[in-house]
Amino acid sequence: MSDMLERTARLIDGIDTDLDVSFLGAPAKSADVISDEIAIVQAFSNVVSFSTDDGLVLFDVSHQMSAPTVVSAIRHWSSDEIHTAVYTHGHIDHVTGARAFIDDAAERRHRDITFIGHEAIPARFERYDLTNGYNGHINKRQFRLPEPFFPSDFVQPHVTYSDHTTLDVGGTQFELHHAKGETDDHTWAWVPEHKAVCVGDLFIWQFPNAGNPQKVQRFAWEWAVALRAMAALRPELLLPAHGLAIGGADRVVSVLENTAAALESLHEQTLTLMNTGARLDEVIHTVRLPAHLAELPYLKPTYDEPEFVVRNIWRLYGGWYDGNPAHVKPARDADVAREMAALAGGASVLASRAESLATDGDLRVACHLVEMAYLADPDNATIHGIRAAVYEARRKVETSFMATGIYRAAALDSRERLV
């Protein structure tokens, strides 16, 4: 068993529950060899490589910033031509490294790489071009970039498929399956010869990214269906696009089924409340992940979180109306804030109350009040100081990267106005 598989076995088997199996650091300079024919290079998005008689088959090509290091790591493992690269989906951390691999093939005078992905990927790339600026601002908040940035140069898949297809490269078969989950263009693969499943982002060693408040629709139920389909194959090897590989059929099946169960639970609870006529406000403050699932080390809400997934389930089935009639055609936030400030005796009173609530630990209400105070009196330096402090306090108690990124951005916004 490889060192990577030994590490994840110790975690899943309960021997070493503090082991860090996620990966958000610099790209690895060497490949982790899983077997003679399989290697994985850890990066912001991993690259999984299979050796075949006709060359290498890759799953994902990583981000453009990490791809040169990833290419080097793969080349230390194998000098074979790269025959095929499969996009597990069109997110930029999985596809924008393509140019580095193309350049490597050209320098070595290897044949052109065939890029394969689901038929919805080209439409995603078109949408990225339409919303480049918006996505740049999301990246600035979510990934703490100094300036908005989002790439615009994408290598289109040469071959696409609809529901499923099978590749035969050098005598090794790769069964590609479409699934909706984190995206509408996701591919997972079953490699029978190695009893391996390449899961892309359908398993990421964190709570599934099925909520994400700043991105397009996610699909919790279809995600769970895909995980159940993988588990039914009883894979002996799970190869993810983030984090470490897992070996052993019982371990692989357990993580797939538990992740599916978590999504199914949120889906069932949310729909049950929606069918009673509950408002979104009631739903998001009622639905909870079962404790036995929430405690699992690979379902921690450190990137996305269950509350955001509940909102996305509501959006999928119920649209944007949240059940509050005042929100159908709302007044401007600033107009409501000024009215609330007038009733309270001034924006500073709202800010002072927010500060007090934050001190007492009621950060949810504190954020509402301090935001109203800011909107009612946007040039008040004292209010900006309180606003920055409230959002910084909120950031420190939140667990998900998405929530902390938004609260950090709000705090920085007010701190910059104090200069």
Summarize the structure.
The chain is of the alpha/beta class and 419 residues long.
Structure description:
The chain is α/β, with parallel strands linked by helices. The protein has two domains: 3-263, Metallo-beta-lactamase domain (Metallo-beta-lactamase, Chain A); 331-418, Alkyl sulfatase, dimerisation domain (Serine Threonine Protein Phosphatase 5, Tetratricopeptide repeat, Alpha Horseshoe). 46% of the residues lie in helices and 15% in strands. It has 16 helices and 13 strands. The strands form two sheets. It has a seven-stranded mixed β-sheet with strand order 1-2-3-4-5-6-7. A hairpin with a 4-residue loop joins strand 10 and strand 11. The longest helix has 26 residues, at 249-274. The radius of gyration is 23 Å and the shape is globular.
